[in-house]
Amino acid sequence: MSEVPHAAGVNGPSLLRPRQAGVHGKVTNIELFFDLVFVYAVTQLSHTLLRDLSMTGALHVLLLFLAVWWVWIFTGWITNWLDPERLAVRLLLLALMFAGLLLSTALPEAFAEHGLVFAGAYAFMQVGRSLFMVWALRHSPQAARRNFYRITSWLAASGVLWIAGGLSSDETRAACWVAALAIEYFGPAMAFYVPGLGRSSTMEWDVEGGHLAERCSLFVIIALGESVVVTGSSFAESARNADAWFAFIIAFVGCVAMWWIYFDLAVERGSRSIRHSSDPGRTARLGYTYLHLVIVAGIVVSAVGDELSLGHPHATVNGPQAAVLLGGPALYLLGNALFKQTVNHTNLPFSHLAGLGLLLVLCWPATTLSVLALAGATTLVLVLVAVWETLSLRSLRQELYGAEHE
Fold first, then answer.
1. Concatenated DSSP letters for 113-150?
2. Which of 89, 116, 225, 400 has the smallest CB count inside 10 Å?
3. What are the tens digits of pLDDT across the range 135-183?
4. In this structure, is the dihedral angle defined by the CA atoms of residues 46, 50, 54 and 57, taken in order, positive or negative?
5. In degrees rounded to 5, what are phi and psi of residue 16?
6. C-alpha triplet 406, 292, 127: angle, nearest 5°
7. What angle separates helix 87-106 from helix 115-136, to the nearest 10 degrees?
8. 187 vs 290: CA distance, rounded Å
9. 3 state DSSP class of 315
10. CA separation (Å) from 383 to 114, 229, 262, 388?
11. HSE on the CB side for 22, CA within 13 Å?
12. What separation in angstroms does the CA of 99 have from each of 5, 204, 352, 355?
């Protein structure tokens, strides 16, 4: 994430995206092809959490999710600058795709025998992608190259910890990987400061806002798609009795409500906001790099809740199940609320705060309800938030899309 010039280098054609003022850079087919790996990664994460709902299991999945999101969003930033139609960039994305697939296969056993596979694939993607960017900018001004020297330095430092963790025992592995993630997540916030190389400024980050907004919205679709797959697969294996039908409908309606809350107006408002921002790099860093991970985490956890309601509808909710069934929607509403506040420069949406309050109230009777009943209650909260926001923003919708979309 840094300043990137978009003129062709003096010694050869540039690998960077051509930019035209007022033109939204398109998401290319190779970028969508790359994202297929992360459909699998999200599925692996939700299934791993479902198999172990203990505190340790949840913390492991959280760490792995943060890594998966980070490697994806960093690639999203890189393809915001690089031109995927160039052969070298396509080969880069295909190499990253292969490493991402290897990483995804290792997720369920990342804290067991596949730790080194996961760590090696992750470090290769992070460091290798940044080194490619240094090479791609070899004919660019020194300021642009220095920014990627900084980024590569941060990622190389974290890469050492990823590999060290992969070679270590369980407790040491977790400590190394937490430290590695801390380095990577603090990097953008610290403007990738390196002694002797200085730091970057968000005002210098040359972001094509429309492209990055579309990339992040497509990842939300990926996560929602995993929820649809879980719902369909679980229902297909069920007895198709009345409870299974009810759970199936609840899961589908909940997924639709989640889609509505994000895609009804938030995507377009966010895209317009970053495209017209005086500091798009700052909006991209907070609204899309950090806050979208909370939104996607909410979808992943909610998918686990859907599988619980379809697989064990009559079971009385225990503590871990309540955390999943309530935590997924809560994370999703919180992430959306913070994202909308950031990109729209408004207060937190009251509909979302009310939804979070209702979910908090549900914590009290949660462990006395059946899994299906609690799933139905949380879905009702999501529907209420979606309807409330839709009605409250009718005038804004007309302004954005015109009366014909009412």
1. TTHHHHHHHHHHHHHHHHHHHHHHTTTS-HHHHHHHHH
2. 400
3. 998 877 677 777 888 889 999 999 999 999 999 987 899 999 999 999 9
4. negative
5. -90, 155
6. 140
7. 160
8. 12
9. coil
10. 40, 21, 12, 8
11. 0
12. 28, 31, 38, 39
Write 175-178 long-range contacts (CB < 8 A, 24+): 177/63, 177/67, 177/119, 178/63
The tokens describing 325, both together, are 């069934």
- Phi, psi values for residue 21, rounded to 5°: -60, 130
Q: Which amino acid is at 348?
A: L
Q: Where are the alpha helices (DSSP H) in 237-290?
A: 242-263, 266-275, 280-283
- Is residue 396 a contact partner of residue 342, using CB atoms and an 8 Å limit? no
Q: What is the pLDDT of residues 262-288, one digit of tens each?
A: 998 888 888 787 877 767 777 788 888
Decide if 293 contacts 315 (C-beta within 8 A). Answer: no
Tokens 């407790």 found at: 171
Within 8 A by CB and 6+ apart from 186, the residues are none
CA distance 109 to 115: 7
d(CA 304, CA 44): 11
Tokens 């937190």 locate to 348
Q: What share of the chain is helix, strand, coil (3-state, %, to 5)?
A: 75, 0, 20
Distance CA 6, CA 13 (A): 11
**What's the burial of 23, exposed, middle or buried (CB within 10 Å: 0-12/13-18/19+)?**
exposed
What is the residue-wise DSSP string for 150-213?
Answer: HHHHHHHHHHHHHHHHHTS-HHHHHHHHHHHHHHHHHHHHTTT-BTTTB---GGG----HHHHH
What pLDDT is attached to residue 403?
A: 43
